[in-house]
C-alpha cells in the first residue's frame, strides 16, 4: 500500500481532534502499545497512539487516517496471543482503554450496554449485584476488554455449556474506516430482519471497523458449581470418558496432560505424582451431575474420582487447571497454542503433539477444554536459545497442521492475528478467502484497518 504521509502529521491530527484528546508521540510510551502478548508475532513501530475517549474521536481519527491511507490498529488490553493488536510501522494505534464505562444495565430485558474498553470481569461483578451474570469467561477476563473479546470472539471454560462471546452479543456500534457509524444486530432477543452482520463483526479482529459500543446479553446468575476431579493413568481412558461426561451437560470440562501435571508438581505439589491425565468437570445444576460423572470416570478406569459442592473445595479442585499455564511458563519461554479438534480426535491430537515434542526436542504440555475440543498445547524452550526457538516455531506450525488434518481448525479462540495467516490460508480455500477480501473492501476500501491480520 502507498501511504500518503504528510509532514506535521501529529500537528494535523491534534488540530482535527482538539486539545482534549490524548495523542501520544513519546517513543517509549508508543513502544508499550506496539505489541500484544504473542511471543511469535512481529510488530511495527507506529507513529502515534490515540487514547480515544468517545465514538466521535474514533470517527475523527479514522476519517483522518483513511484520507491519508494511514494504517490503524485497534487495541483493547493487548492481551491477545496472535499478534492481532500489533502495530503497523507508520500507522496509528487507537487504544480503547479509556472508553470503559458501563452505560446501562437493563434488568428487565437482561442486557447491558457498554463501551469497548470495559474489562470483562468488571462487567460481571457489576451485574452480579442484580443476581445477573455476563457469562463469557476467557482466562484473561480480569484484564481483557469486551471490545477485544468481541473482536476475537473469545472463548473460555464455560463454552461447553454457554458458548462463546458471539452467543452473548446482541448489537454492536461500529465505526467504519471512513468514520461512518453503523449499528449491527439488535438489542432484542430475536430479530431476523437483516443479514447477520453482527456475527460478521464478531471475530473480525479489527479488520472491518472499530467497535465503539456493545449490547451484551445477561443471564440469571448460575448456582455455585459442584466440581468433580478424576485422575487417570493415561490420556486414552480419560478421553473415552469425555463423550459421556459431555452428555451430562457440564458447565466446565477441562483436561490437563501428564507433562503439564509434572510442571505443576515441580512448582506447587498438589499430589498428582504418577498421574497420567486429569479431567475436571463442573456442574452449575446439581451435585447429582458430578456424582454421575464420577461413576462414568470410574467405568473408564479412573484412578480416583472425587467431587464436592462446597465452593472452597471447588476452588482447590480446579487449582491444577489454573496453574497449568503459569507452571509451564516458569520453565522458559512458553508459546501457548490454540487449536480446536472434534472431541473424538483429542487423543490423536495429544499423541501427535507428544511425537512433535520428541522430534523437536521440546517440552510441550497440553491442557484445555476437553468438552469442546479446544486444546492449548504449550511449547516451552529456554530463554535466549535461538535454535530451540526455531524448533519451537516449527512445532507450533506442525501442531496446527495436525489439528487441521484431524478435521480441526487453526484457532478455537485466540484468533488468527498475524501468526496464523498461513494456516488460515491452508484451511480456508481460495473462494472463501476471496469472499472475505470482498467483504473487507466494502467496510474498508483503502485497506487501512489492521492490514495483514486475520484475512489471508
Ligand atoms: C494468560 C492469558 C490467558 C488467555 N486466555 C484466553 C481464553 O481463555 N480465551 C480466549 O479467548 N482468549 C484468551 N486469551 C487471549 C486474549 O486475552 C483474548 O483474545 C482477548 O479477547 C483479547 O482482549 P484484549 O482486550 O486484550 O484485546 P487486544 O489483545 O488488545 O486485541 C485483540 C484483537 O481485537 C482487536 N480489537 C481490540 N479492541 C477492538 C475494538 N474495540 N474494535 C475492533 N477491534 C478491536 C485488536 O485489533 C486485535 O486484533 C488469553 C491471553 C492471555 C495472555
Kindly describe this structure.
- There is one protein chain.
- The protein is an alpha+beta fold.
- It has 16 helices and 19 strands.
- The strands form four sheets. Strands 12, 13, 14, 15, 16, 17, 18 and 19 form an eight-stranded antiparallel β-sheet that branches. Strands 5-6-10-8-9 form a five-stranded antiparallel β-sheet. Strands 1-2-4-3 form a four-stranded mixed β-sheet.
- The chain is globular.
- The chain binds flavin-adenine dinucleotide (FAD).
- Flavin-adenine dinucleotide binds at residues 36-37, 73-81, 84-85, 96, 116, 138-140, 144-145, 147-149, 151-152, 154-156, 205-206, 210-211, 413-415, 450, 453.
Name the descriptors.
five-stranded antiparallel β-sheet, eight-stranded antiparallel β-sheet, alpha+beta, binds flavin-adenine dinucleotide
**How much helix, percentage-wise, in residues?**
25-40%
Extended strand count: 19
Question: pLDDT average, as an integer?
Answer: 96
Largest sheet: 8 strands, antiparallel
Q: Report the span from N to C terminus.
A: 16 Å
> Which strand-content bin applies to the residues?
15-25%
* Number of discrete helical segments: 16
SS-based structural class?
alpha+beta
Uncertain runs with pLDDT below 50, 5 residues or more? none
Rg over C-alpha atoms, rounded to the nearest angstrom = 23 Å
Bound molecule kinds, no repeats:
flavin-adenine dinucleotide
Oligomerization status of the protein chains: single chain
User: What does the overall shape look like?
Assistant: globular
